[in-house]
Amino acid sequence: MFVTAGIDEAGRGPLAGPVTACAVIIPEGVKIPKLIKDSKKLSEEQRTEMYEYIIANYQYGIGQADNQEIDRRNILQATFLAMRRAIQALLIAPELCLVDGNKIIPGLKIEQKAIVHGDAKIKEISAASIVAKVTRDKIMLKLHEEYPQYNFAENKGYCTQFHIVALKHYGRSPVHRQSFTYPVENEQQGLF
Are 8 and 127 contacting, i.e. CB atoms less than 8 angstroms apart? Predict the structure, then answer.
């Protein structure tokens, strides 16, 4: 059997937390539910249901790059790092990696193909998008317990009005990305 892995990530755009990648191999003959599609097209409840199905029935690996690695490398290189870690975490080595987006992963000694909107076209990538999103959301819920003032439980580290107000009031937490530009109403105040 030719082994193909789908690769996707979650968390490139937020102001806080890690970027999380997932690699998924769908074993031959295992059912693919209709709800395995781009994670952005599913409700939170549907994502959770499909996440549970995927981790119980498919081969998967998860990789992350934390906010400090993002700051040191930049978000694109940190995303590639998380993707390489996800592939390395697989119990079965894939022969082909289908990567969501328009770029292949540098330094990977496995055949790859970049697929724009792959999370909507390729079931392995769809499954990877679901696991990456749910995994990252769980991380942000834990970070919310540590830093409740930023409301990570709701915004998952993304730029919301509440998050910006909290940043103005409390400054950046240790899990915020220092290299990201933070929108402020009056940048001359030097709040960030």
Answer: no
